[in-house]
Amino acid sequence: MTSNKIKKLCEYNDYILFKAACSCLSNDHDLMISIEEDPEFNNELVINFCANVSFIDKTPGFQETFMDKLDRIFRNIFYRIKKSLKLLFTGYLEMDTCFLLSNEEDIDEFLKAITGGLEKLKINKNKKR
């Protein structure tokens, strides 16, 4: 059910957790996918997608000098202060990240993992009745 980009981390009767790797191979872009039977929603099946979103640019340049590094550090600090003030005064913060599946095989495995997980949880849910 899982491929080299999608791994099943754990499975219980009412919960399945997958980790999907981004095609860019950065750990910062990995996606956690949980499929669960949620009691808050009348035991409906729910899919949650979680990704880490960072405020800073963690990747230094190949030929980065000391002044370039210092400039990047100050730009990151200014960006954090700006976002913190927006959160403080508006009460919300918009963030986004990128997740990339680069070929048909990875996309098919991604869909198979989700649909296979949903099928297993549906079977377990029907057994409880």
Provide a descriptive summary of the structure in words.
The chain has two helices and four strands; from the N terminus they run E-E-E-E-H-H. The mean pLDDT is 81. It has helices spanning 66-90, 104-128; strands at 6-12, 15-20, 31-38, 44-51. The protein is of the alpha+beta class and 129 residues long. A four-stranded antiparallel β-sheet has the order 1-2-3-4, with helices on one face. It folds into two domains: 1-53 and 98-129; 55-95. It starts with 5 loop residues before the first strand and ends with a helix. The longest helix has 25 residues, at 66-90. 39% of the residues lie in helices and 22% in strands.
How many structural domains can be distinguished in the coordinates?
A: 2
Extended strand count: 4
Average pLDDT, rounded to a whole number, is 81
> Which class best fits the helix and strand makeup?
alpha+beta
Helical fraction: 25-40%
Major β-sheet strand ordering: 1-2-3-4
Morphology: flat
Main sheet characteristics: 4 strands, antiparallel
Number of helices: 2
Distance between the termini: 27 Å
List the helices and strands and how they pair.
Layout: E1 6-12, E2 15-20, E3 31-38, E4 44-51, H1 66-90, H2 104-128
Antiparallel strand pairs: 1-2, 2-3, 3-4
Short description:
The protein is of the alpha+beta class and 129 residues long. It has two helices and four strands; from the N terminus they run ββββαα.
